[in-house]
């Protein structure tokens, strides 16, 4: 059942991927690639673009940039994605995203 944890313990569990919230996130993305009808590269570049628009945390980039790298998406295409969304999301989001993507590539 539910454990009685402090907020710090709950955040720590979430950060480690050991929490019901993380499991829910995994289930939310199950089969979305297949249902999208997109090729893998386009799918991952669109996900990266959405992360940019949301000013996502580095951990979110790590998963998606790592997957893109694993299928051979070159860094230039990720950079091209940033260029494509820049007029829509603005400079601040692009600079933030570039830093997060650099962190993700270093961690991968």
TrEMBL record:
<protein>
    <submittedName>
        <fullName>Carboxymuconolactone decarboxylase family protein</fullName>
    </submittedName>
</protein>
<dbReference type="InterPro" id="IPR029032">
    <property type="entry name" value="AhpD-like"/>
</dbReference>
């Amino acid at each position: 059942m539910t454990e009685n944890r402090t907020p710090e313990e709950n955040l720590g569990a979430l950060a480690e991927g050991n929490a019901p919230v993380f499991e829910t996130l995994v289930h939310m993305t199950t089969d979305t690639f297949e249902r999208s009808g997109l090729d893998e590269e386009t799918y991952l570049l669109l996900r990266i673009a959405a992360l940019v628009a949301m000013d996502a945390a580095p951990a979110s980039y790590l998963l998606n940039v790592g997957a893109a790298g694993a299928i051979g998406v070159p860094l230039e295409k990720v950079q091209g994605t940033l260029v494509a969304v820049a007029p829509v999301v603005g400079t601040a989001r692009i600079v933030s995203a570039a830093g997060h993507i650099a962190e993700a590539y270093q961690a991968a």
